[in-house]
Specification:
Helix content of chain B: over 70%
Radius of gyration of chain B: 20 Å
Shape of chain A: globular
Shape of chain B: globular
Number of helices of chain A: 14
CATH class of chain B: Mainly Alpha
Number of helices of chain B: 14
Distance between the termini of chain A: 25 Å
Structural class of chain B: mainly alpha
Largest interface: A-B, 46 and 42 residues
Oligomer: heterodimer
Largest sheet of chain A: 2 strands, antiparallel
Strand order of the largest sheet of chain B: 1-2-5
Number of strands of chain A: 2
Order of helices and strands of chain A: HHHHHHHEEHHHHHHH
Strand order of the largest sheet of chain A: 1-2
CATH superfamily of chain A: ABC transporter involved in vitamin B12 uptake, BtuC
Largest sheet of chain B: 3 strands, mixed
Number of domains of chain B: 1
Strand content of chain B: under 5%
Distance between the termini of chain B: 19 Å
Number of strands of chain B: 5
């Protein structure tokens, strides 16, 4: 499952007697545990709810997963680098509003380019503030969350835009290619790109190294600040993309959307085994976690459970999955 | 200020000779003076007794949250659940009283969802619920080894959900005189809420700077492994700081709900982020080991005075958010720069 990566955490782990192989097996267990949980959930939901195991419902689950999933991919990259991005809700909203302003031009290509460019610019601003001013990313992105939400309100005058008649825009949320909804395609392609990026590219190695021990990574010739800048840009791009998918699906661009999404997305990444301390976790884990949350919420929806109870159940699921990992790590450290 | 060798970068602690000089070196104090001067010059209402009392009540809520947050952050942890705890503990307390009323056959809930039972048990139960939430957070972080961000995020969303489920999404009205006393009464010219904050501040300042407990808390944040080897029972202290933060949140919840005369599940959304922002503005380090209740209190005053000034000048809420965000980043950037220059 895990290739050996030159992070200090792993090195420290392998220094202990039966280190490296045991650690690999453990994280493989963690992944298999999540796969097993997902299979179990799907089986239970299918058995209890006849409405669950239908092609139509599978589409619903995947559509719901796509938005949060795309954001979680960006967040995973940021977390792997040992940083945090609380601004994604603000990024999604401001890039949506910018896109909404460009709608009048009539060119969907221009709108999409505007949305994505806004996301990247916001991410770069985050990254520059973190790398140049040395302000902790929690503070930078928390401040930016407020700033971007405020800018979205100011730019739009607090008014929502309904892109109801613009078929090219709505296609991103409601269209389908080969029977699969466009958001699911976008999510899958983004996920594949993220897997390749973290697993096979030089960038991936640099990413884990920076998250594991930034000083050591810097000393071994990795341009640490550039990696940080790139992950924030990627997270901004992902947030803008998710914003595009969601606003197109709902045909509603409003400055008040995506409230609290940052915490849900961090919860997904954590459920997938990504460490907030950086350098530990995988894109695959995040994907599994996004599916687990999607299946749980969908099954509860079908059962007619209120969204508030869903919130409690989701919280419990996160704790149940994360706790054994944490306890296991404790045994290893002791 | 703490004279603990483990907290090496404590600015102000290194300038031993002049304690007064150290106090004056706080940038927050200068910022507060500037804000007060700007307020006094630009608005005739700013220094009026009514406005200042209002300001102090607002400081009480955010100050209590930030003091609790400062304590948790000193150990290198974080508590995202404080906003949800504020609301949940009050709702749960009211709900428990209604339950008790059912058993004792006393009517606790009047017409229109107005609570008509006694207020003192509600206050006691609210504090107990706050402590309980803190205990759960502390157990998860200290003994379950769950990352503090995640543990308290889980309680945040679970408590928000529970608050909705318990209250059925409807507000409860709390109009008994005793309850309102907390939010509205004055002792001399000073609101009771501000006195509560002052009392908590004195206790925290004493614990952190004059008691061995403070040295242990700073030691955990400074270097946890060393503290552990030195015999500090890290788990117990983590439990203690989370319980303290839960209690602070419950107190803040009491003050907020007694001012509003009601409690409602979506109240105080996002307050945890304001509390973190205030603590960080006051120089509390996210990495632990640095920060003081005094500076946190100064930052809370700056935060509330700034908000009050913007509201007095009719600045749109959107522009307020914009300004808060920029000031937060700029203030921390300035602090980082100062620290690097000193080092």
């Amino acid at each position: 499952m895990e290739t050996t990566l030159p992070t200090d955490r792993r090195v420290a782990g392998s220094a202990a007697a039966p280190g490296a192989p045991r650690q690999q097996r453990l994280s493989l267990d963690a992944v298999m545990g999540r796969v097993a949980l997902l299979v179990l959930l799907v089986a239970a939901a299918s058995a209890l709810q006849p409405a669950f195991a239908t092609a139509e419902n599978a589409r619903t689950v995947l559509l719901a997963v796509a938005t949060v999933g795309v954001m979680a991919l960006g967040m995973t990259l940021v977390l792997l680098a040992g940083e945090l991005d609380l601004s994604i809700g603000g990024v999604a909203v401001i890039s949506g509003v910018v896109g909404g302003m460009l709608l009048r031009s009539g060119s969907v290509a221009l709108v999409v380019a505007g949305v994505l460019a806004t996301g990247v610019v916001c991410g770069l601003v985050n990254g520059l503030l973190v790398t140049r001013l040395r302000v902790p990313s929690l503070i930078v992105t928390l401040g930016m969350l407020g700033v971007l939400r405020a800018l979205a309100n100011i730019l739009s005058g607090g008014q929502a835009i309904y892109p109801e008649g613009i078929a090219g825009y709505l296609w991103f949320g409601r269209g389908a290619v080969l029977g699969v909804p466009v958001p699911v395609w976008v999510f899958s392609i983004a996920a594949a790109a993220a897997v390749v990026l973290t697993r096979h590219a030089r960038f991936g190695r640099a990413l884990y190294a920076v998250g594991g021990n930034a000083t050591a990574a810097g000393l071994s010739g990795i341009r640490v600040d550039r990696v940080r800048l790139l992950v924030f840009a990627a997270s901004g791009l992902a947030a803008a993309l998710a914003g595009l998918l969601e606003t197109a699906r709902l045909a509603y661009i409003g400055p008040a959307g995506f409230t609290g999404i940052e915490l849900s997305v961090i919860a997904v990444a954590t459920l997938g085994g990504v460490s907030l301390a950086g350098g530990r976790g995988t894109i695959e884990g995040t994907l599994l976690a996004a599916l687990i949350i999607g299946v749980v919420n969908n099954a509860l929806n079908i059962a007619g459970v209120s969204s508030y109870v869903q919130q409690i159940v989701t919280a419990a699921v996160i704790l149940v999955v994360v706790l054994p990992d944490s306890l296991q790590r404790r045994e290893r450290e002791a | 200020m703490s004279a603990l060798p483990l907290t090496t970068h404590e600015p102000g602690a290194d300038g031993r000779p002049g304690a007064a000089a150290a106090v004056l070196r706080q940038p927050m104090l200068w910022l507060l003076a500037a804000l007060l001067a700007a307020g006094a010059l630009s608005s005739p209402y700013f220094l009026s007794a009514d406005n200042l009392a209002n300001l102090l009540r607002q400081v009480a809520v955010f100050g209590l949250l930030a003091l609790g947050m400062n304590l948790v952050m000193l150990t290198g942890r974080i508590d995202l659940s404080v906003g949800a705890t504020m609301v949940f503990s009050v709702i749960a307390a009211v709900e428990l009283m209604v339950l008790a009323g059912g058993v004792l056959e006393v009517r606790m809930m009047g017409r229109g969802n107005t609570y008509v039972g006694p207020a003192v048990p509600v206050v006691v139960l609210t504090l107990a619920m706050g402590a309980l939430v803190g205990l759960i957070n502390g157990l998860g972080v200290a003994y379950g080894r769950v990352a503090p961000f995640i543990m308290t995020l889980v309680t945040l969303s679970a408590l928000r959900g529970l608050s909705y489920v318990l209250s059925n999404g409807r507000p409860y009205y709390l109009r008994t005189d005793t309850y309102r006393w907390l939010g509205e009464a004055h002792v001399g010219p000073v609101p009771v809420a501000a006195l509560v904050l002052l009392a908590v501040f004195v206790v925290f300042a004493w614990i952190l700077h004059a008691h061995v407990a403070g040295k242990r808390i700073y030691a955990i944040g400074g270097d946890e492994k060393t503290a552990r080897f030195a015999g500090v029972r890290v788990g117990r202290w983590l439990l203690a700081v989370y319980v303290a933060s839960g209690l602070c949140a419950a107190l803040a919840g009491l003050i907020l709900t007694s001012r509003a005369n009601s409690v409602d599940a979506p109240m105080a959304t996002g307050y945890e982020l304001s509390a973190i922002a205030i603590a960080v503005l006051g120089g509390t380090s996210l990495a632990g080991g640095q920060g003081s209740p005094y500076r946190t209190l100064c930052a809370a005053l700056v935060f509330a005075a700034g908000l009050n000034l913007l509201t007095l000048h009719d600045v749109n809420a959107w522009y307020q958010d914009l300004i808060i965000g920029i000031v937060l980043i700029a203030a921390v950037a300035a602090a980082v720069r100062l620290q690097r220059r000193d080092a």
